[in-house]
Amino acid sequence: VYSHAEALAAKGNFDAASKAFEQVRAEHGDRASLLRAEAEVQLRPEGDPQRARELLMRLRKAADASRADELYATHRLIDLYLGPLGDEARAMSELRRLVERFPGTRDAEGAQAELDRRRAARSRPDSQS
Questions:
Q1: Is residue 129 over pLDDT 80?
Q2: How far from 39 is each of 29, 43, 45, 99, CA to CA, in Å?
Q3: Alpha helices of the chain — where are they, by DSSP H?
């Protein structure tokens, strides 16, 4: 349903791709697969990180979102906050969310290790972060 929008994005026409995604959403609603596809387009280096953030937040709340969608969105949000959006506080919040929502998984263990590493780095007197 959204291959036309993806094709536009592949050609570098992000404005037209965004409009095409909006048209599909108007017809089909905020389906998880659609939100994920548009988020992936916006996560590209030439995409819009703020728009990607918005789409990922909506993906987690989509009526048909699965746990896998939630996990994907949370990982990508962490990447955005630690990368182009430069918001470590929100990244830490998302890491905590990962630990709480997916206990006993490798994802949660990795998130906890990253939280511990960042806390330790912050508590060191020679830390500049």
A1: no
A2: 15, 6, 12, 23
A3: 3-10, 14-28, 32-42, 49-61, 67-82, 88-101, 106-123
Contact call for residues 102 and 108 (beta carbons, < 8 A) = yes
pLDDT confidence of residue 46: 85
Encode 18-34: b = buried (16+ Cβ within 10 Å), e = exposed: bebbeebbeeeeebbeb
Cα dihedral sign, 99-51-12-3: positive
pLDDT by residue (tens digit) across 5-58?
A: 888 888 888 888 888 988 988 888 889 999 999 999 999 888 899 999 999 999
Identity of the amino acid at 115: L
Torsion on CA atoms 59, 65, 69, 70, rounded to nearest 10: 70
DSSP annotation of 13: -
pTM beyond cutoff 0.85? yes
